[in-house]
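Field: sequence (string)
Field: structure_tokens (string)

Example rows 1 and 2, in order.
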Amino acid sequence: MSRKKDSSTLLENRRAHFEYFLSDFMTAGLVLTGTEIKSLRARNAGISDAYIYVKHGEAWIANMHIAAYKEGNIFNVDHLRDRKLLLSKQEIKKLEGKLTATGNTCVPTKVFLSHGYAKVEIAVAKGKKLHDKRDTIKENDLKRKVDAAMKGQYE
């Protein structure tokens, strides 16, 4: 029996794109229980406050909220527990090296399904200053106005 070939995005962390300069994107697998994957497929989760850390040579994601599956009864686990990320040793060493730099952190940007398995896209992040956030808002507003003008011009 083959797995479905899908890559549907379940969650996106739009706040991360606004709060941080993102670089060095990686894809990692998630270690989940049966009820967690069912709840995740139902999109009952959130990654806006989540972050990644490395401990004892393993990568972990903290503060990723996956709501309890309503039919899960005794098999449900803590909704905010730390979950292990599946990365190779080289990727973990690279990530650990990036995280030791001053002002860097690692955040999840999206959660998606690939061949039936839950995956998370992570990025090394450096915090934006207030004036950088204002510049981002200005650029988005300008882009929105240009798109609206172009759309009005061709209709």
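Row 2 begins here:
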Amino acid sequence: MNDQQFQENIGRICKNDQEGLRMIYEDYCALVYSVTTEILHNREDAEDVTSEFFIRLWDIAHTYRPGKGHRAWMITIAHNMAIDYLRKHKKENRTGDILDNLQSGKSSMEERLCHKLSLEQALATLKEEERQIVNLKIMGELTFREIASVLKKPQGTVAWLYRSAIGKLKEVLL
């Protein structure tokens, strides 16, 4: 969904048209879930926060201002909601379900599980901050500027941490 389509759907939400929310939900549910999972490290909590995100989006749609990037706006909200959830529930060291989000393909379940495990292990070698940046860059398709805005860090630091994290992943996976 491009910025224009997003803006149109936000306008629909502001007019109490649920179709606008449905369109945004279909395009961005996976992204919001990915952001919340990265922070919460728990599938059930991430699902709860993701659901709450779309309820909140309905309530705050009128606050969206075009021109600053709708993906970064949504990721910032999802990020803040997940942090608030952590603070409220004091759940800091939760682990996720290894079998979540197994990619479908022609390979056997065992091969996919081994690939998923090696990727999970590689990501586990990264620092929390590096994992968040890699997730936002790859899954969120955000620019370094947008990531810097979400994480409230200098753009150069974000780019450096991303390149460092990718280097570490290459070492572990190759």
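free_text_note (row 2): Residues 108 and 114 are 10 Å apart (CA to CA).
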